[in-house]
Design goal:
mainly beta; 18-stranded antiparallel barrel; 2 helices
């Protein structure tokens, strides 16, 4: 199925919606207007000419309909709309900031995206066609910058079997966080940092199964094939338990097996990634520990456009995904509600990586510190107004160290 076929399916579904009963379609709808003010500044210690950053404002309309039944059938249909627009308040024009589009000379003053999703449901099975915001081990949308990274395709999810979720999907395009159109899928190339339009995939096929064995234990298997680029197997297990009235344990172990696919457009890919993490929450305190190791001769593959992989326990600006790399992550978080500052929390994460093969060198080391402070107004007229500050300090053996500062102010108005 190519992209034009998906749009034909959307038009057909739209025609069906016109004849459906609209009461639940409107009554169960959810419409939000989201505002995000975002500042990002990255500074390279040994290469100030590479510094980049921007200050921008975004407005997003996120409208999700309810479901309308088609005649006397069990089929229910609906539609979602996502309209995103951002404009630059200030920034460095010379260098791309990967937040706003850049034409090679300067960043754009404003840009927007419009995406539509048609959805159909029968019992506990749902099909979405159009713009997608997936959360899965093999593909995730990215909310980390100003506008969202989204995808186009079809996503089928079924929960007909008790405690089990089955997923089938086909993805044929990506609308990256610093772009305003859907593009063909590629593999991320660190040397290029954008899309290599000469080596594109003929879509991405996905299948997954998630099962809850007990209230505490869950397991997953997912498979993805980015045609002629890479294929990926994922196996994961998690254990969550309430240890006492104030203590909770959250742990997981995850394994990825990555290899080349079909015509090997980006050459041989040989990577296996094992990661394990545990978090202990007691009252206002959260402690976390993660270990991650890369096996094989190549780094962990991701989709072109800087798509993150949060299912790796150690993931940051430094990524810690180079060939042979081993890494540890340490987390401490504190919720200030117990001290009377409701809505305020802070987290510090420290990563350290070693034995990496990168840039033609071996036994390379890196480390990264993230400090994140969040505050959400808990009540009153400004209830829901949120402010997040983030400081990132990343250090490498093989390239320039960097520091990054982010400040995001968000507010959602619900109709």
């Amino acid at each position: 199925m190519r992209r034009h076929s998906l749009w034909i399916a959307m038009v057909c579904t739209s025609a069906t919606l016109a004849t459906a009963a609209h009461a639940d379609f409107v009554k169960d709808s959810n419409v939000q207007l989201k505002f995000k003010n975002f500042y990002l500044d990255r500074q390279y210690d040994d290469a100030p000419q590479r510094n980049w950053g921007s200050w921008s404002q975004a407005v997003t309309l996120d409208a999700k309909s309810g479901y309308a039944e088609i005649g006397d059938t069990d089929i229910q249909v609906g539609a979602d709309l996502l309209v995103q627009h951002a404009f630059k308040l200030n920034g460095r024009d010379k260098n791309p900031d990967w937040v706003l589009p850049h034409d090679g000379k300067e960043s754009k003053d404003n840009f927007g995206k419009v995406g539509a999703t048609l959805k159909a449901k029968v019992s506990q099975t749902e099909l979405k066609v159009g713009e997608l915001l997936p959360i899965s081990p093999v593909l995730v949308f990215d909310p980390s910058r100003q506008l969202l990274t989204t995808y186009s395709g079809a996503w089928l999810e079924s929960k007909e079997i008790k405690d089990t979720k089955l997923t089938l999907a086909y993805i044929d395009g990506i609308n990256n966080r610093y772009d305003n159109q859907f593009r063909d899928l590629t593999k991320f190339n660190p040397s290029q940092k954008q899309f290599d339009n000469g080596k594109t995939a003929d879509g991405m096929y996905i299948a997954g199964i998630d099962h809850q064995f007990t209230p505490e234990i869950a397991g997953s298997y997912w498979y993805a094939d980015l045609k002629d680029i890479y294929q990926q197997h994922y196996v994961g297990a998690s254990y969550k338990a309430k240890l006492s009235e104030k203590a909770k344990l959250d742990s997981h172990i995850r394994y990825f097996d990555n290899s080349e696919s079909g015509d090997k457009l980006y050459g041989v890919i040989d990577n296996q990634a094992l990661s394990a993490g545990v978090k202990l929450n007691h009252g206002s305190h959260t402690l976390g520990l993660g270990y991650q190791q890369m096996f094989g001769d190549t780094s962990f593959p991701t989709i072109g456009g800087w798509v993150p992989q949060p299912y790796l326990v150690n993931w940051g600006v430094a990524t810690f995904t180079n060939a042979k790399e081993k890494s540890w992550g340490f987390t401490y978080g504190y919720d200030f509600s117990g001290l009377g500052a409701k809505g305020l929390n802070a987290t510090a994460v420290y990563f350290t990586g070693y034995d990496a093969q990168v840039a033609g060198k071996t036994n390379q080391e890196s480390n990264e510190l993230n400090v994140i402070v969040n505050y959400t107004v808990p009540e009153g007229k400004l209830k829901g107004l949120g402010v997040q500050g983030m400081y990132i300090d990343a250090n490498y053996d093989w390239t320039s160290d960097l520091k990054e500062y982010r400040v995001a102010t968000t507010y959602t108005y619900k109709f």
